[in-house]
Every structure is written in structure tokens, then in C-alpha cells.
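Our preliminary data section would be incomplete without showing what the modeling component actually yields. Below, a chain of 548 amino acids is followed by its predicted structure, encoded as C-alpha cells that our downstream tools consume directly.
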Amino acid sequence: MGLVPECFITEIVERDLKEGKYAKLVTRFPPEPNGYLHIGHARSLVLNFGLALDYGGECNLRFDDTNPETEKEEYARAIEEDVGWLGFRPTRVLYASDYFETMYQCALVLIREGKAYVDDLPEEEMSALRAQGKPSPYRERSVEENLELFERMRRGEFPTGSRVLRAKIDPAHPNFKLRDPVLYRIVHAPHYHVGDKWVVYPMYDFAHPLEDFIEGVTHSLCTLEFENNRAVYDWVIENLKGKCGLPTSPRPHQYEFARLDLSHTVLSKRKLIRLVEGGYVSGWDDPRLPTLRGLRRRGVRPEAIVEFVRKTGISRNEAQIEMDLFEEVVRDDLNPIAPRVLGVVEPLKVVLTNYEGEEWLEAPYWPRDIPKEGSRPLPFSPELYIERTDFSLNPPKGWKRLAPGQRVRLRHAYVLELEDVVEEGGEVKLLKARIVPGTLGANPEEGPKPKGVIHWVSARHALPVEFRLYNRLFLTKDPEEGGDFLKNLNPEALVVKRGFLEPSVAQDPKDTRYQLERLGYFWQDPVDSRPGALVMNRIVPLKEGYKA
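Predicted structure:
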């Protein structure tokens, strides 16, 4: 099985290649450099690059940079970096803006053939007439007048938005997209890639098919919102093939698939911008965001994102995918590569009344179901930290952790029993306890057996850590529930705790992912963590319903 799971698109590709329709498969990933990539883009990335890998073809990274007012070099470079991080290597890195001269010449061809005209209508009036299926009063301008006006548009003689070039198709066409769509508009703004050379810019519906045709793309794969645009795509190609340097055949064809939609988050660029610019998150790489930069900083591996796309498949059916599935795929990816270590997020100190000195225990990194070897020395001393939630003065029924009269085993160490509780202002400040002799790796010979196992760290050796516990960004499955998505933000999407880790972590590479036993998967924040001032991001919690 290839990188792309079997689906209707693989069937089309295999048929076309078998019938010799194309000598070689060519796809493209065509982001607009006006923002950062997010998890929703991953499906298109895996599909386009995966098909090229599976069928021995090519896949280009192409920047659809036809809007100078919103696009930036910063975004283009970030996109290129994110594509590489996911493990994909484009055959070529291309820019739509490099084809502006060819596109302009193609527009001239359409004008000369009477298939395009310059329209002076304000945008509101044009939209109203299109909605009514009525023609523009400028639709019957002569070829000569249209050529003159379009060339003057290029020279910058008219202000931004004052004129457009429209295709002359059918003002009352049943497909609204074919009601004389706009092909070019005037924008007096510098372009990040080509500078001040142009003041007329092609619209997406005109640029997209020409880019594909110029690059020899065979299968142009778009999400379903572009399904109606396919009619314009085909019209442009059919009316320009064999002209202005374009071949007659083979021509590209557009196919649509359902976009990737995920619960408990937003993938709309407009909403992501509101989150960032409104200060609801710290930036585009905030680990609460679904951006690839955010997921990367959180600690999610690219392998998990690719597998998530493969697991959810490619289809034409729109469906929201549960965040549970994404988290499960991330856990499955981390489980065999994340060594197990001990850490305490909400520390409660325990003083041992019958233990002196210290000893170093040998603790395995891996559980029995993972076929790996390796261990580390784990210090044990008279003062420990345990998790505050692992102790209860008045335990509920079925409690399996530390409580008065109830023993518990310390992971990799001894059985512990409580002797005294030190309270201050109604809060438990300190526990006094004893280890049951002879219980290192063995059950007590007398008295009750421990009901559960808890994690701990030696207070004398522990590394202080800032734990950043990331949770879902929104409280509701659909952030739009109730109308204003900002009202559904989860106030505990980030919870910061001060705790401790076992000392072995200090010797490991910074990018090591860990499973903190009973707590979840963590790694060092690549931006803020420093030796001596560790910051650990929770990548994903353990499976919901995990019981200690």
C-alpha cells in the first residue's frame, strides 16, 4: 500500500496512466503565501506529494501569489519549511507571479478573440447585475477599445479597483461562476516576489488553470469549495490551449476532494488571524493552534500528521473528524519512541521517617509490551515528591492511591504507608510516611497489600520544571456553536504548573519525547526551555479514562 490510501483519486490516476493519457503523473501543492499552513492543509500535502511518490511522478510546490496586498515573503519561507518538516521534497519550487507575462499575453488573446472585455462597473453594481443574470453595459465594447483599456490598465493609468477584465461567457449562466467572471483587477501595491513591475493581477480562476497548464500538471486536486470553479478552469484551458505558448494536449484536469475538518478547533484563516492578532494565543506557533508550526512546537511529530491523514482517508464526503482520533494517532506514534520517566506536576512533599541516606535504583525505560531495552539510575532519598492528586484524606469508594490506612507502591521502588498529615489553613502541606521494609520489588510479608502504584521523584535530586499542560482550544466540538467562536474558547487550553522531573532527563537530547508515567507525553519547549530552567510541553494526555 502506498502513502495515499486507495480512493477515487487513486482510481482516476491509475486509469489515466494505464490508458496512456499522460506519460507521467505531475501534481502540485499550491498554497497562497498569505498565512501559515495548518492541519487542514496536511490532507492536500499528503495527497499531492504522496501520489507523486506512489506513482513515480513529480510534485511541485507552487506559490499561488496573485494578491500582493496579503502575501509576504515570511509566509512563503514558512510554508517551504513546513513542507520540508513533513518530509516532502518538491520537484520544483515555483511562483505563479513568474508567469504574469504569459498570463497577460493569454488575456490579450481572449480580448482579440472577443472573449474578454474591460468593465468599469463598481464592484457592488457588478455583483447585483450578476445576481440578476443581466449583462454589464460595457460588455459590447469593441476589441480595439478593450485592448487599449487593458494596456492602459497595465501601465498604471487607472486607480486600484476602478476597472477589471472579465471573461465574455454568459451573464445568465446557471453556474454563477460562469457569469462573465473577473479575470484581472487593478492593484497598486508592491508584490513580495516581483516588486513594482505589475499593477494588474490575475484572479485565481484565471491564474490557476494557466499555472497548471504551463507546468504540465496532469491532475489538479482541489478541495470541494472549488467544485463550481472547475467550469471556469475548463473554459480557460479550452479557449487558450495551443495559444500563447501553451500546448494543445495533454491538458490538466481538476478533481475535488473533501477538506479536512477537525473538531474543537478552527481552520479558517480569518478566525486564526483573530486569535493571533487579538492576543488570545501567543503567536502562529502557539501550541494551542492547529497550525503546523503550533503542532511542531507542541511536540507532535510529522509522522503522526501524515498517518492521521492516511487514517482519515480521501473522499468527497464532508465530515468533521473528532479530535479524539487525532490525539489517538499522536499517542500511537509516540508510544514506541517515548521512554518512560517520572515527573510530578503538582508536587506534595513526603518525608520518610524510617529511611536515611540514598540509593540509586535501576529503572527500565520501556514497558514489557515494547521490545526495547534500556534503563536509567533513579535516585531514592528520605524526601520525595508525589502528585497531590494521589493523596486523599477522605478517599472515595474504590480509591487506589495513598490515604490513611491504605498502602501504595512507589513506582520502581518501595511500598509506602502514611503516618501523619501536616495541614496549614485547611490545606495539606506535608505528609509523613514510612516505607515498608523488604518491599523493593516485593510485596509486604505482613499487613495489607498496596492497591495501586503512584509516581514520585526524589526531592534532593529533582529537576525543577515549568509544565505547560495543553488542552483543546475550544470547549465545544463546533466552535461556532452559539454564534461567536471566541465565546467558546477553553480557559484551560493552557494550564501552567510548577513541578519536578527525575534527573536523568538532563542528559538527554533536547528533542526527546517522553511519556511521564500516568501523566501524558511531553517534550521540551523548543523556544523557551533552557538548561536549568526546563519548560515541558504536554504533547497529548494519556488516553481518556486512564486509571492509575
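The radius of gyration is 31 Å. The chain has a mean pLDDT of 96. Preliminary results of this kind motivate Aim 1 of the renewal.
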